[in-house]
Amino acid sequence: MNVLLKQTLTASVLSTMIAGTVFAAPSETPPAFVKRVADGLISSLKANHAQLQNNKAAVSAIVRKNLDPYVDAQAFTRIVMGTYASNQNSTAAQRAQFEKNFRATLIENYGSAFAKYTNQTYVMRPYKETGSKFPVVTIDFNNNGEKIPVSFQLADNGSQWKVRNINVSGIDLGLQFRNQFAANVKRNGGNIDKAIATFKPDADAAVNQKK
Fold first, then answer.
1. pTM of the entire structure?
2. Where are the coiled-coil regions (predicted)?
């Protein structure tokens, strides 16, 4: 009886864990998530605008607090590393180092852009439910009269959405960063460690890249 009871309890616990894993889902809709993150970031930028001028550390701190927790760095890393993210072309340690470096340089990239923030506004485009595994939410930022569309591709992280890729004005940043990294690997003679250590994703160059 004791053995049977233990087996029953074990099965019950496992089924509960599996059910929780299968049905766990973000409580927010994709557009609600993006709006919350965007509003939080913009509010912090507005509140601290005077202190942000010529203060990279302050800008980076705001970006790290308001944006970094909502980025799926592992997924973004796999997109950018491309074929070099496979077990055949890199080690787990190399991929971890790339993710660490990539996250830091992204914060620096976005920090430089946000330091110029004055009082831009944005409008969310109507969200279209496509049933895709990676829903996309698009925001039109108004920068001194210029409309800049930014699309956020999201991934279901179990309890909340996370940003796995960004498209700016029709330019896929993940793909452009991948091309930049591949070129850096080539410049370093195929040495992955050197390529990872010297890789600096250039968001401006990516956005200005012609299709």
1. 0.79
2. none
